[in-house]
Design goal:
The protein is an all-beta fold and about 120 residues long. The chain is about 0% helix and about 40% strand.
């Protein structure tokens, strides 16, 4: 609130922004070599949101591994996020002298999608 010239309190009207959130999970595994070519999504899996976000929304997706089924660290790649869904794949982490072959057993990936 702010005060007018007489000192009366005047409520401030703020434009509110409503955010939408959806969550889900998917079981993924990788039978493919590590993907190093940017934009090659031929080995990705399409996730479709249970309810599409409103047209024109800016959507972000936050994935997180929920299980620990393989000895190597699974990396998660996200691509092509739209109001209808996104692409996802496991891409084992390439670390130091240890070269990953990219293949990984099934892990459960939880995801949260929200408008910003």
């Amino acid at each position: 609130m702010s005060a007018d010239a007489v000192g009366r309190m005047i409520p401030q009207i703020r434009k509110s922004v409503m955010s939408f959130i959806q969550t889900g999970k998917i079981d993924l595994k990788s039978d493919n070599a590590i993907e190093t070519a940017g934009g090659n999504t031929s080995t990705f899996t399409r996730v479709t949101f249970p309810t599409p976000f409103p047209p024109g929304s800016s959507v972000v997706v936050l994935p997180l591994t929920q299980t620990f089924n393989g000895p190597e660290t699974p990396g998660i790649r996200i691509h092509d996020v739209t109001t209808n869904g996104f692409l996802i794949r496991l891409n084992e982490v390439y670390a130091g002298a240890t070269k990953s072959d990219g293949k990984h057993t099934t892990e459960t990936i939880g995801w949260l999608a929200a408008t910003v």
